[in-house]
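User: quick one, fold this
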Amino acid sequence: MDPVVHRRMVEPGIGLLELDRPERLNAISPQLLGELHAALAELAEDRECRVVVLTGRGRGFCAGLDLQESHGGDTVPDRMRLQKRIASLVPALRALPQPVVAAVNGPAAGGGLALALASDVRIAGESARFGNAFVRIGLSGGDVGVSWLLPRLIGASRAFELLLTGRVVDAREADRIGLVSRVVPDADLRESALAVAREIVANSPFGVRMTKDVMWAQLEAGSLAAGIALENSTQIAASETADQTEAARAFLERRPPEFTDS
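Assistant:
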């Protein structure tokens, strides 16, 4: 059986994670689910990869769970195990030390929407569509972390409307409401995502990792004081690294820094 998730380095420090079920708009099958979990576990230990670009091959980013595939038993415990297995992709993406840039092509629906929301940066091709239609088929719009992530990205008012109606958002609206960083022609999508990845790779590895950790942690911080305390500790830790000294020296000498992740 050919793999349906591909992970490879495309440039120094930049890895590409590509879903490859284009005939099903990269919908989540048991095979894709297992391979994606395995790829994320490998990335978490990969010190050579410093940024990940996540995308789907063909006309879709990820159309959610593939209902034409058998996902195991049909009892409530079976379905709960599957639900937890899919939902655990979101914290796995969050826990990666590398920032994840989602290059969203075509539909990002259901679990596919969750993958996009759990990424750190989202860039949309003009064909991108974002939706969570569970409420239209008698289920809750709260699924796979979407009801936690979406209001933190676009605000509670807009998130309520989208999840209660199940309405699909096109790329232009996604840009207007702050769901994505930018919209580009589909032909330019991958290169645009790589350009953002290059900008990230140009920064110190430890500083980038701490920035990702702090930004996600601040979404759950209970107070301004707690948030500042977290910033203080990570900032002082970063100031003691060799890379911070190198960055300061390179700035004074007007040259690119040479980071060693130390």
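User: anything notable?
Assistant: Residues 126 and 185 are 5 Å apart (CA to CA).
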